[in-house]
């Protein structure tokens, strides 16, 4: 078992990683279940996690005399909407949830973001516990308190910083995760190495295949190391005001443009877009003379070796660099000729560049697209 503390004044919490934790849920979540004596415990899930884990969770709770009630959403981003938020908050009110209660989010990033935001506004803030069931949610979205829904204007534009009271991770749940989603989550694991921990990146180049194969020791180590890096960053800059937390967005500006161009669809999952975005950030850093070509090539090789897209031409897009840059401008709601960009001075050394000319980025992307 590994326990990582997210150290925040007055809002510190532990992330617990333990194979088999779900079977031991009543003991691990005891402090957050206590207020429900004689009442049902609210669990939010999607149809997949509900089908896969309802029985296991209910059996574990029953050992301590608790029972659950379930709010189940369809899988996918559509659940992060005003309409579903309204239904969820009405349901929580009907259940009599108070500010001292904790709501349990059992699922991937969608379930966690939706539940966290509902709890941020429920009676001006009730508690919640994250039980993430995808690798991406385990190493990224469940930790750090970013909660949000989507609107017609864009993704995650309505939300709140609301930290969970605990994050409970059972790596065994990843055994049912489709391989493609496992790889997409692994992109965020590689991100932690690339952005701030060259040693971890080196370890991943040796052990990544075991992580992807869900070999227990390698997987638990990768999850714990990723969360330790995220906890360090969040503790330093919880609300992303100093530029430190922005480092977690490595690969995301390029990645977002690729997601927008492919219609935010299954054609390119978020983690896949981040993977290719990191390759582009590394190559663009090399083009600016800030990262060696050899390190940029090592970054791309680690991503390709994991079965993630490492060449923009793999996506079969019919577009130009200027069009991708337009998506970036739109994402950041900026019409200027420059944007802040996460670039690399080497493996494990990301930094926020503020002098990037978008015309130069467009020319770089044209060359990557073979134009
Ligand atoms: N996923 C980026 C962050 O938590 O800041």
Structure notes:
The chain is of the alpha/beta class and 371 residues long. The protein has helices at residues 25-28, 30-33, 47-62, 82-94, 109-121, 135-141, 179-196, 198-212, 216-236, 252-261, 270-287, 293-305, 321-331, 358-368; strands at residues 2-6, 13-17, 41-46, 68-73, 102-107, 127-132, 146-151, 154-161, 166-169, 338-346, 349-357. The chain has a seven-stranded mixed beta sheet with strand order 1-2-9-6-5-3-4, sandwiched between helices. A two-stranded antiparallel ribbon has the order 7-8. Helix 8 (198-212) crosses helix 9 (216-236) and helix 11 (270-287) packs antiparallel against helix 12. The radius of gyration is 20 Å and the shape is globular. The N and C termini lie far apart (51 Å). The model has no long low-confidence stretch (mean pLDDT 96). Bound molecules: glycine. Glycine is lined by residues 140, 144, 146, 245, 248.
Sheet of most strands = 7 strands, mixed
Range of helix content? 40-55%
Count of alpha/pi helices: 14
Query: Strand fraction band?
Result: 15-25%
As a whole number of angstroms, the C-alpha radius of gyration is 20 Å
Q: How would you sum up the global shape? A: globular
Protein structure class: alpha/beta
Q: Give the strand order, joined by hyphens, for the main sheet.
A: 1-2-9-6-5-3-4
Which features would summarize this protein structure in a list?
11 strands, seven-stranded mixed sheet, globular, alpha/beta, two-stranded antiparallel sheet, 371 residues, single chain
